[in-house]
Amino acid sequence: MTFGRRFFLANTMLFSASIALTGRASATAASDGAGDDLTRFIYAMPKAEMHVHIEGTLEPEMKFRLAQRNGVSLPYSTVEDMRASYNFHDLQSFLKIFYEGKTVLLKEQDFYDLTYAYLTKAASQNVLYAEIFFDPQMHTDRGIPFATVMNGLTRAQADGRRNLKIDSQLVLCFERELTAESAMKTLEAALPYRQHIVGIGLDSDEKNNPPDKFREVFARARKAGFHLTMHCDLNQLDTHEHIRQVLEDIQADRIDHGGNILERPDLVAVAKRRGTAFTVCPVACGWLRENGENINIIRGMLDQGLKVTVASDDPAYMKSNYVAESLVVAQGDGALSKGDLLTLARNSFEAAWISPAQRKIYLGKLEAFRRQWA
């Protein structure tokens, strides 16, 4: 689901601090020769993205264009006015923007255009492979057929492979404030598209919506052959119990965000033992406040030996910080070395839900890059 529904529920002030730190980190990275070298290194480095919500890639220009094409009225006369509206300050202001965005996604071509635009951007940053999240319930609940969404997404993926040389798969996310029955119905609708959907996820409002609420749905998904991931957003109510449920009850393959695990050494040990991967989005959710100090989550996870990856989440609503920009932010905030950055890229390929042969190819390209830049 969307950035606002996931993050602002927790801590708006921490988010604001993260955005401020983001600007400082990016400025620092570009201010000297070492920073310039690291930025070039990041953009050129082969990488994969494991956590991007396609609805969160709707840039103002495209939203304006789709609104005009579909006859949807928006409260802006220009793209510039619309872009200015993305400077939200709390959950309510974000939700207004986000829900306005989904109203312009009506036809198969809309979902195609949105997805192809993301793939074009990702390919330009040397993303070789992406796992793209999508939330079908937000569309089917508006009367848009599941097939309309899927046909647009998969056509764009096929064209991305052919024209851009970027491979991708889909991760279907349930909205956790909806019922488990709704999730099960959505899962059943997804089964005919099993060849396109590699995994099942869970996002949106965690309050009173723990992972165990969907235990039967995820068991059904696992039986059907899907990989599993779940959001454990920062500083949510019962966050440590949610992380425990994902690790021990659901036994998901990955956790999206999950920064609060650093507060619980026992859960860190479980995640390391299980090889659980974490998809962390540093622009929006890169810092943890503990004992009066700001803890950089990516740095902390690397130091703890967790399999952490960097992703962009909802880049259109994060000042257009896609995965390369997110890595620049992570480097600046966490004082990451080239070795750390290579570890993050390696983790992204190791955490990807791909065949061993495909993984070997990607890791080989990363190793060739390492030797070239050594």
Summarize the structure.
The chain is of the alpha/beta class and 374 residues long. Helices cover 54% and strands 15% of the residues. The chain has a single domain, classed as TIM Barrel.
Write the layout of secondary structure elements.
Layout: H1 3-7, H2 12-29, H3 33-44, E1 47-53, H4 60-70, H5 79-85, H6 91-102, H7 108-124, E2 127-134, H8 137-140, H9 146-164, E3 167-175, H10 180-190, E4 197-203, H11 215-223, E5 227-232, H12 239-250, E6 254-257, H13 265-274, E7 277-280, H14 282-285, E8 287-290, E9 293-296, H15 297-304, E10 307-310, H16 323-334, H17 338-351, H18 356-373
Parallel strand pairs: 1-2, 2-3, 3-4, 4-5, 5-6, 6-7, 7-10
Antiparallel strand pairs: 8-9
Helix pairs in contact: 2-16, 3-16, 7-9, 10-11, 12-13, 17-18
EC number: 3.5.4.2
Enzyme class: hydrolase
Keywords: Hydrolase, Metal-binding, Nucleotide metabolism, Signal, Zinc
Walk me through the structure.
This protein is of the alpha/beta class. It is 54% helix and 15% strand. Strands 1-2-3-4-5-6-7-10 form an eight-stranded parallel sheet. Strands 8-9 form a two-stranded antiparallel sheet. α7 packs parallel to α9, α10 packs parallel to α11 and α12 packs parallel to α13. The N terminus is likely disordered. GO terms for molecular function: adenine deaminase activity; zinc ion binding.
